[in-house]
Amino acid sequence: MNRNPVIPFVLIMVFGIGLIFFLSVKGLGDSDEMAKDKKGGEKTEQASSGEFDPKAYFQKTCASCHGQNYEGGFGPSLKGVGEKKSKAEIKKIITQGQGQMPPGLVQPENADQMAAWVSKIK
Prior knowledge:
Blueprint (H helix, E strand, L loop, with lengths): L5 H44 L4 H13 L14 H4 L2 H10 L14 H9 L3
Helix pairs in contact: 4-5
């Protein structure tokens, strides 16, 4: 009644390799679909709403670092930033980045509106 102890390990290995292959093929299909959505999605979203909404954009893009209540987190607190920096300085940081903040998160045509909104955060 001696059974080969290698068989369970081989079965687990075969199952794992099959699972990895299946998930990679599924991921490739999903990435193509996401790329198609992203190409047309950003422009139609802005075009359908008609105007740039800085607060909604902040919630979607910036809140993960600056906090839902602007209190900071990974990024600095934005409370009272308008008292410390001018709108031009805020716009420069928004468009060009600073420290850990990457450049280009806000489109240049929306940077003035975003800077004005950020400068009013209390």
